[in-house]
Amino acid sequence: MIINKxxxxxxxxxxxxxxxxxxxxxxxxxxxxxxxxxxxxxxxxRVEETGLxxxxxxxVMTIDxxxxxxxxxxxGKTLQQLMEENPEKIDEYFDLFVDLQIEMHSCTCPNLNKxxxxxxxxxEQTGLDATTRYELHTRLDSLPKRTSVLHGDFDxxxxxxxxxxxxxxxxxxxAVQGDPAADVARTYLMFWLAKREDLGEKYLKLYCKKTDxxxxxxxxxxxxxxxxxxxxxxxxxxxxxxxxxxVVEYE
Length: 251
Ligand SMILES: Nc1ncnc2c1ncn2[C@@H]1O[C@H](COP(=O)(O)OP(=O)(O)O)[C@@H](O)[C@H]1O
Ligand SMILES: [Mg+2]
Hints:
By secondary structure, the protein is an alpha+beta fold. The protein contains ten helices and ten strands. The chain has two domains: about 5-70, 2-Layer Sandwich (Phosphorylase Kinase, domain 1), CATH 3.30.200.20; about 75-250, Aminoglycoside phosphotransferase (APH), C-terminal lobe (Aminoglycoside 3'-phosphotransferase, Chain: A, domain 2), CATH 3.90.1200.
């Protein structure tokens, strides 16, 4: 299959997202297992049933032996693009970003996998020593269960504002159900990893204010969220993630 350059919406080391008429195709390379791709589409299909505004899955297929899926194309711009193009409107965009996350957290979707199960599994894959893993498992068990829809990668590049001004949430590969504060800790970490601590603080303050959440509660999730991210073994992230994980040792 030949993809024209002007169809490409995003090119990643292991994925290509391209437009095909009124649809988009997300094409994964051979490093993605069938189960991995089907999991992303199943998550997205399940979240469609909540009534949240998201692109609908239209088809799952293989292209030249690689797994792919097709979804509705949403004409518009991502919040990340809008933030870059109109920096003077950053407060307005953050307001929208946080309101959208709060709306998502108000939804439930009982068939989604559980954050707690996923995180216990991740902690075991970190390669951290047994004592640190024990601390992380104990911490995880002490945190509230809850059943909110969590995106797991709620970031301005995963929100599209359509040409009609309607926000859509994309990219459901990490979706689970659980405590909203874990999703907030993930978004906060994402700003830090992008070296935008300033935006991270702005975001966290706004979320906590709007939902009357204690920042300390979000902080309780941070060692677990950092441990889960550390599995990707990115050298440039190692120092920051370990400083977040090791909070456990001082308590
Ligand atoms: N349904 C869609 N409609 C319009 N643009 C999309 C759609 N899905 C993805 N995109 C564009 O492609 C980018 C990457 O898609 P995404 O699913 O977030 O992939 P990744 O997992 O690589 O982040 C998005 O940030 C957005 O710009
Ligand atoms: Mg994305």
